[in-house]
Amino acid sequence: MDLNTEFAGHVAFVSGAASGIGRATALLFAERGAKVACIDIATKLCKQTTDAIHEAGGEAIAITADLGDAAEAARAVADAIGAYGRIDHAFNNAGITGSHEDPFDLERVERTVGVDLMGVIYCMKHQVAAMLDQCGGTIVNTASIAGISGSVGALDYTAAKHGVVGLSGAAARKYGARGIRVNTVCPGVIRTGMTGEVEDDTGQLKEIFSRLSPITGKLGDPVDIAEAVLFLSSERAKFIHGVALPVDGGFSI
Ligand SMILES: NC(=O)c1ccc[n+]([C@@H]2O[C@H](COP(=O)([O-])OP(=O)(O)OC[C@H]3O[C@@H](n4cnc5c(N)ncnc54)[C@H](O)[C@@H]3O)[C@@H](O)[C@H]2O)c1
């Protein structure tokens, strides 16, 4: 199989595509032949992602939406389908960090859960409907190692990411027999905007996170997650369904 054309003619929906993991995944989908709907709240940065895809000869559109809002998420899915006619592969990845300072700062907690969990549900509602109509598709949701362990991440973030793992498993059970394959990717500590504070730290924090990725002793790169997402979205993973896959350099050992 030629990996470079693996997704030729397919349509991918990638949220959080303006930066980090989402951006790397949008670029990789495009490189391997997919038309990519890039969704993000950050309009300018998202446009930079689609510009990079166009410069490399690929096809993509940028859609601005706050996915923590049900109506905007519905519009984002509708716009993607309006542009390309279908969604073969959804990657629900947009996210924010939780409230580290005050775990019960309710306004902040509601926003974290609103984007990191409800945002995935809002998108899936319309993606699943479209995939049922077109008789199939794949969904990969981004959780975190904080979605499979209580020992990393803020309370609200951990709760939301456990929710994503549970949601994805339940959706896999419900829709698998109707042709929708659903999995979750659980990144370890990856070098992105979200982990800026780890990168800036010259001492303890960086040391701890590096030590906890035993395979490299380093933080992961966004493309490490992108490769896992493309694999889970591909026919090569046709027998993988309902799993929460850690991609963390061994962090979760
Ligand atoms: N970086 C890590 O170490 C790490 C580890 C585990 C899980 N994750 C998860 O990976 C995903 C991607 O994060 P990243 O590390 O690439 O961070 P990032 O900050 O680089 O990217 C997140 C993207 O989501 C977008 N976004 C935020 N709120 C949004 C909203 N309401 N609507 C639409 N878009 C919104 C941001 O604008 C940004 O482009 C997140 O779900 C995050 O929780 C990251």
What does this entry look like structurally?
With 253 residues, the chain is of the alpha/beta class. It has a single domain (3-244), classed as Rossmann fold (3-Layer(aba) Sandwich). Helices cover 45% and strands 15% of the residues. The protein contains eight helices and seven strands. It has helices at residues 20-31, 43-55, 70-84, 106-133, 155-175, 196-200, 204-211, 222-233, and strands spanning 11-15, 35-40, 59-64, 89-92, 137-142, 180-187, 244-247. Strands 3-2-1-4-5-6-7 form a seven-stranded parallel beta sheet, with helices on both faces. β5 (137-142), α5 and β6 (180-187) form a beta-alpha-beta unit. α3 runs parallel beside α4 and α4 (106-133) packs parallel to α5. It is globular. The mean pLDDT is 95. Residues 16, 18-22, 40-42, 65-68, 93-96, 115, 142, 144, 187, 189-190, 192-195 line the site of nicotinamide-adenine-dinucleotide.
Key features of this structure:
single chain, 253 residues, Rossmann fold, 7-stranded parallel sheet, globular, binds nicotinamide-adenine-dinucleotide
Summarize the biggest pleated sheet.
7 strands, parallel
Distance between the termini: 33 Å
CATH-derived architecture? 3-Layer(aba) Sandwich
Please tell me the overall pLDDT: 95
**Helix proportion range:** 40-55%
Strand fraction band? 15-25%
User: Got a strand count?
Assistant: 7
CATH topology: Rossmann fold
Q: How many distinct folded domains?
A: 1
How do the helices and strands follow one another from N- to C-terminus?
EHEHEHEHEHEHHHE
Q: What shape does the CA trace take?
A: globular
SS-derived structural category: alpha/beta
How many DSSP H or I helices?
A: 8
Trace the largest sheet across and list its strands: 3-2-1-4-5-6-7
The CATH class is identified as: Alpha Beta
Whole-number radius of gyration? Answer: 17 Å
Bound molecules: nicotinamide-adenine-dinucleotide
The CATH superfamily title: NAD(P)-binding Rossmann-like Domain
Low-confidence stretches: none
